[in-house]
């Protein structure tokens, strides 16, 4: 994983290149979540991404949601864990729970 500063610099560089960009940030964890609060994933409008919010457990779902955030401009708070409705689609194999805030980078 890239250090946080590198991910934020990448988001700014991509914006400077004219790409549409969203930033996903871990804002809350519980249990054995694989990434700490403050971890980032940056996504461009074509679906390219760098960073990690879950060590590979939910990145695909976060990228999909980030593309929707880029299109709509509306941020959203995502919650993943083994007991919610996303568990069959995307879940944390470690059994923890995380909340990820996704916002468009302007």
Automatic annotation (TrEMBL):
Species, as recorded: Blastochloris viridis
Domain XdhC- CoxI: 14-81
Source taxon at top rank: Bacteria
Listed name of the protein: Xanthine dehydrogenase accessory protein XdhC
InterPro entries: MoCofactor_Util/Proc, XdhC_CoxI
Pfam families xrefs: XdhC_CoxI (PF02625)
